[in-house]
Write a structure and sequence with these properties.
By secondary structure, this protein is mainly alpha-helical.
Length: 973
């Protein structure tokens, strides 16, 4: 009996496993983390967990990371899921969205045939892959609980580490148990942080395995070692089960240390007790020559390994390799897996020992032979790259091509791995290779490093590329300078970025060339980063003039849009006209033209968001996302997400806003940027507040506030303070909320908040002061709101100034005046489609009218507000409006039963919901609707659920009948 299979001394640990399984049986997801030194028994405990789960009828899937294959993207998940999922009938995955199946097909080879949509991936949207795997796990757990066992995660590749972090942060909404094992101090930093957060949140159970006691070790050894021998073995092993096992293997039949004349193996890097290393060396030395050679070939080929690859690495024929495999199985050095023709080493330490025992020259040749064998069988470049990197000669163009291709294949979903392959290609590239080829690799490496938050390294790679790019490659040089300045902006090195851009422009011979215009546009953006709006407008004007003379429509569009953005931010009187000019040109451009200058849509959507043009801002933002995904351009998505998400919730399109901003937060978590994550969390908090989800709004606001402590004061920290103040006001901490706003957002006039949004925040400050009994300060904030409106002269600002004055009137006993101001504000807001704030204004109007004794008018305003909040799905604010209605004696009746439909209910649908409902009438499927409206299928499904609820229907057929009946009766447009 192999003593490693005898589980003793782990009663507490087994109790933890049973607790996790019990939680799984109750229908919840959970995670358990086993931590311990090598050989301590983590794998054995995972095997026991798997056995217990299988006895309970659960689905158990297992995978393991491997020490020498740490750069195969998502390997641990491929190892666990690919074989099982590939064996499922196609209908088993039919319920998954097309985009989910497409994402899965990019990481699980067995699902390649399931991809139904064009391949699309962006470094900035790696979260889509994570969502797809979460959806797959939820699907697999629909019929019975799933136990996903992942071992040796201290060797996890970067893609797997990111994916695990995402699953820990947002676990599957199904009975899924993640059982994770790893060695301490070796866990990738990203995974370690995710585990620590999950541990603090109580969503993962940590089990630390220690050494066996002397009594437990004697029980484990049993009759194989007794008395002083057992005691000596225990002392030598330190109570480590694997060390005990290996020492016992080194005993002869009489229990004495076995002596052989076999050659010792070099195990200097094994880091185990010398006697354990010696025992393992003797075990390996007892093999026949062919078996030892094949074992060494297997150590090079991988863990797990295929016999054919082991034979190729060992340079032996396959029949001999199969005979040798029988010998290796008989002595338990390798073991079969659940996958046919795939085998594993008994323990990773055994594989490491065998690998280290091979002579350096032989090992190099073995990797080369393995790479050649993989190439002959058409294996993915990622599988080849590992062996190519370890065996290629400097200047080997074919090897450089393999590593470059592997990097490009991994870049979108596993950029950290891609950066490694690009770096390997750079080390091999010949000194005589064209400079453009080296620059291409440096630029790709810089992009991959930036996508993982390694901005300093990315910056260094860009500087190196600028140094080697040929002078005649003008367009490429400008592209590199712009990219370098962009990273410097992210690093907060604004003067350095400004000087770099100006120097590059000065060095151009033609100051009106396309390259010059591109630099002028970036200098305008640089002005925005440096809060120098005059400089921004000056550079934008120069860019417009130069681009117009070139008659380059796409470049002109970008210049016009950045000028409009600067004008909107500065409150220029010309902002509206300039924004309209940019929009007219951009709307005439094809997607192919705009793909050349996608930033035009970003600047335009931003300008429109600041100019109260919320519908076109959302439309242009969505077009930017669509084109970016189709063309693989995601660098500008962090800016687009915030603009688009805001435009959507302002219009009451809560489901779409939440989806966009959830993606923004998930994307920001992958970049390790405090600034980006803090901003996206704040934006998400605002959207959650608008949706009435105060719990989520509070959680995201607090997390963003924690990050803000590491940021310099500025617009981001100011907006975080605004959001926290909003929540404090809701919680009754009004005086504290007012003080936070004044202290963090630029004094009593909140100068750190730009455009019409400052008036919106001043309206909040007014309400905080009034609720705290600080009327004189409230009067000053009202004056500041009116001054802001008079300066920017935008509808949102005028409406918010009206609402601030209305709040002051109510506090001063002038409800009739307050009602007039609130109704005027609501009308203004509805004109610009700021329907969420308009509904809030009508609630205030209803309260004021009620105080003024105008009951019917109050009921009418509150009913309009209630219907609007119901349409948005803002249940909390709908309930507030209903409470006000009940105070006025109004009975609230809402249909809840399916089938209790009313033609009038169609009127309650938002414009977007009605548009979607008509597509249902036209018998469009969810994927077709998603494509036509530029939405995800998830958003379509959310809208349909809201529509079913509003109309009291149960399915698409009843929905179509309700819409058709309403069309016949009322003819809604």
């Amino acid at each position: 009996m192999v003593i490693g299979e005898h589980l003793v001394g782990r009663a507490d640990e087994l109790g933890s496993l049973d607790h996790a399984l019990a939680q799984l049986d109750r229908g919840g997801s959970c995670a358990i983390e086993l931590v311990g030194e090598p050989g301590i028994g983590k794998t054995r405990l995972l095997a026991e967990l798997a056995a217990r789960a299988e006895r309970l009828g659960h689905l158990v899937l297992t995978g393991s990371a491997s020490e020498l294959e740490r750069d195969l993207p998502f390997w641990v998940f491929v190892d666990a899921l690919d074989e099982y999922v590939g064996g499922l009938e196609p209908e088993a995955l039919a319920s998954l969205d097309d985009d989910v199946r497409t994402e899965l097909a990019q990481i699980l080879p067995s699902l390649t045939a399931h991809a139904t949509a064009p391949h699309a991936a962006l470094q900035n949207e790696r979260y889509r892959t994570h969502r797809a795997v979460r959806a797959l796990l939820e699907r697999l757990a629909t019929t019975k609980p799933l136990v996903l066992v992942l071992d040796d995660l201290h060797w996890a590749d970067s893609g797997s580490a990111e994916l695990l972090g995402a699953l820990l942060h947002r676990p599957p909404a199904a009975p899924v148990l993640l059982a994770l094992a790893m060695r301490p101090r070796l866990v990738p930093e990203r995974l370690s942080l995710a585990l620590e957060r999950a541990h603090r949140a109580g969503t993962v159970m940590r089990v630390e395995l220690g050494a066996l006691t002397s009594e437990q070790a004697h029980e484990l050894l049993g009759a194989q070692a007794v008395g002083t021998t057992a005691t000596a073995l225990y002392e030598e092993s330190g109570g480590n089960p694997f060390y005990l096992e290996q020492l016992v293997r080194g005993l002869d039949r009489d229990g004495r240390e076995a002596r052989t004349g076999a050659e010792k193996v070099a195990l200097a890097e094994l880091q185990v007790p010398p006697t354990v290393a010696a025992a393992l060396a003797r075990e390996l030395g007892g093999l026949t020559e062919v078996a030892r050679l094949v074992l060494q070939g297997a150590a090079v080929a991988g863990d797990p390994f295929e016999p054919e690859l082991a034979a190729a690495a060992a340079a032996t024929d396959e029949p001999s390799a199969m005979d040798a495999l029988d010998e290796l199985l008989s002595v338990d050095l390798v073991r079969p897996t659940d996958v046919p023709r795939r085998f594993r080493f008994r323990h990773p330490l055994v594989r490491r020992a065998v690998y280290e025992s091979t002579p350096g020259g032989w090992r190099l040749s073995a990797h080369e032979r393995t790479a050649e064998a993989l190439a002959r069988r058409g294996a993915p470049v990622a599988a080849q790259a590992h062996h190519v990197e370890l065996s290629a000669r400097p200047g080997d163009a074919a090897a450089v091509a393999v590593l470059r291709e592997a990097g490009e294949a991994a870049a979108q979903r596993a950029p950290a791995t891609a950066a490694r392959w690009f770096d390997g290609a750079l080390r091999l590239i010949s000194d005589s290779a064209p400079a453009e080829e080296r620059v291409r690799l440096l630029l790709a490496r810089a992009g991959s490093l930036a996508a993982t938050g390694h901005l300093a390294e990315s910056h260094a790679a860009l500087l190196e590329s600028i140094a080697v790019v040929p002078a005649e490659a003008l367009a490429l040089r400008v592209r590199l300078v712009v990219a370098c300045a962009g990273v410097e902006h992210l690093l907060g090195r604004y003067p350095q970025a400004h000087a770099r851009l100006e120097t590059a422009l000065d060095e151009l011979e033609d100051g009106a060339s396309p390259e010059a215009v591109a630099l002028m546009i970036e200098l305008a953006v640089d002005g925005m980063y440096r809060a120098d709006l005059d400089a921004m407008l000056g550079w934008a004007e120069r860019a417009v003039a130069a681009a117009t003379s070139l008659q380059d429509r796409a470049l002109t569009a970008a210049a016009l849009a950045v000028r409009a953005c600067g004008a909107a931010l500065s409150g220029s009187a010309e902002a509206q006209a300039q924004c309209e000019e940019a929009a007219q040109l951009i709307d005439r451009l094809s997607d192919d033209e705009l793909a050349r200058r996608l930033d035009a849509l970003v600047y335009l959507a931003t300008a429109e968001g600041y100019l109260d043009r919320f519908e076109p801002s959302g439309r242009h933002g969505q077009r930017g996302v669509t084109i970016g995904r189709a063309t693989g351009q995601g660098d500008l998505f962090p800016l687009l997400y915030a603009v688009l998400g805001t435009a959507l919730w302002v219009q009451g399109r809560m489901a779409e806003s939440v989806e966009v901003l959830d993606g923004a937060v998930e994307a920001a978590r992958l970049v390790d940027s405090d600034h980006g994550l803090a901003w996206n969390l704040c934006s998400r908090s605002v959207a959650a507040f608008a949706a009435g989800d105060l719990e989520h709004a509070s959680a995201t606001a607090e997390e963003s506030a924690e990050l803000a402590t590491r940021l310099d004061p500025g617009p981001v920290t100011a907006w975080i303070a605004v959001m926290r103040a909003q929540l404090m006001h809701e919680a009754g901490q009004t005086s504290r909320a007012a003080d936070l706003l004044v202290a963090s957002a630029g004094g009593e006039e909140l100068r750190m908040i730009g455009g019409a949004w400052r008036a919106r925040c001043l309206e909040l400050l007014t309400r905080c002061y009034l609720a705290a009994g600080r009327r004189s300060e409230a009067e000053r904030s009202v004056q500041a709101a009116r001054a802001c409106a008079d300066t920017v002269r935008l509808p949102l600002a005028f409406a918010m100034a009206n609402l601030a004055e209305a709040a002051l009137d109510i506090d001063g006993g002038l409800p009739a005046s307050a009602a007039v101001r609130a109704i005027d504000a609501a009308a203004i807001l509805e004109e610009v489609n700021a329907v969420f704030d308009a509904a809030g204004a009508r609630v205030l109007a209803g309260r004021a009218l009620a105080q003024a004794g105008e009951r019917e008018a109050a009921v009418a305003e509150l009913e309009r507000a209630r219907a609007a909040f119901d349409a948005f799905g803002s249940v909390r604010y709908r309930a507030q409006a209903e409470r006000e209605l009940r105070k006025l004696g109004r009975h609230i009746h809402r249909r809840t039963k399916a089938g209790a439909t009313s033609d009038a209910g169609v009127v309650s649908l938002t414009a977007r919901e009605l548009e979607l409902a008509r597509l249902v009438v036209d018998r469009k499927t969810n994927p077709e609707i998603a494509s036509e409206l530029f939405l995800s299928q998830k958003t379509v499904e959310t809208h349909l659920r809201n529509i079913f609820r509003k109309l009291g229907v149960a399915n698409r057929i009843e929905l179509a009948r309700a819409v058709e009946r309403a069309d016949r009766t009322d003819g809604p447009s």
